[in-house]
Design a protein that fits this description.
The protein is of the alpha/beta class. It is 48% helix and 13% strand. The protein has a five-stranded parallel sheet with strand order 2-3-1-4-5, sandwiched between helices.
Length: 203
């Protein structure tokens, strides 16, 4: 778990060096949570000298089908970086790489099945591939606040839960009072006028 996007890229460079891919200019597939994270990663790549020699392509929900098809066709060649959300470059996406494809998942998938689908992009058709999951604190929706203060987030959630409990208690008390009022009205209605002992017994 790293601090931010910049550290994600630093870790990515170390992972490439560890797998001895940093000199081979292997194609990279960077899988993000959504288009917002895709834009963040693309901006960070553009500012990093290490990745400036690579062709960087981002696929988003707004990418025209023709451009998407062209990007996927080129994604397996050397010095290519393809970035996209899991819903775009995940399941059903086949990248025929000319050299081993390095796939990095830059967020925490909601399920193991989703992670396995992303992991499966690394090696298709029996080809060799590499996979890393590089998580950032800033990707956690609960921590997407300026301070990233976990204690504050927990306190806010606890306060919200306490308010919910108070509301539920108020509703229960209100319903109980209404039932009591209805009970009283029914009793008054049955006891008005001459005594009705059968009604009284059933009451």
């Amino acid at each position: 778990l790293v601090k931010d996007t910049a550290q994600q890229l630093d870790y990515l460079k170390r992972a490439l060096a560890q797998d001895k891919l940093d000199k081979n200019e292997n194609p990279l597939l960077l899988v993000t949570r959504d288009d917002v994270q895709t834009a963040e990663i693309l901006a960070a790549l553009a500012a990093d000298p290490f990745f400036k020699s690579y062709t960087q392509t981002a696929l988003t929900a707004k990418t025209p089908p023709k451009e998407e098809k062209k990007a996927l066709a080129a994604a397996g060649t050397q010095k290519q970086i393809l970035i996209g959300a899991a819903g775009i470059v995940g399941r059903g996406t086949d990248i025929k790489a000319s050299t081993p494809l390095f796939t990095a998942c830059l967020f925490q998938p909601a399920t193991l099945a989703e992670e396995m689908q992303i992991r499966g992009r690394a090696g298709r058709f029996g080809e060799t591939g590499y996979y890393r999951q590089i998580l950032s604190q800033t990707d956690n929706p609960a921590l997407r606040k300026p301070t990233g203060n976990v204690a504050r987030v927990v306190a806010e959630r606890q306060q919200a839960e306490a308010q919910l409990v108070d509301k539920e208690r108020t509703i229960i008390e209100t319903v109980a009072r209404l039932q009591e009022d209805l009970h009283t009205l029914q009793f008054k209605k049955q006891t008005s006028g001459p005594p009705n002992w059968e009604a009284w017994e059933s009451y």
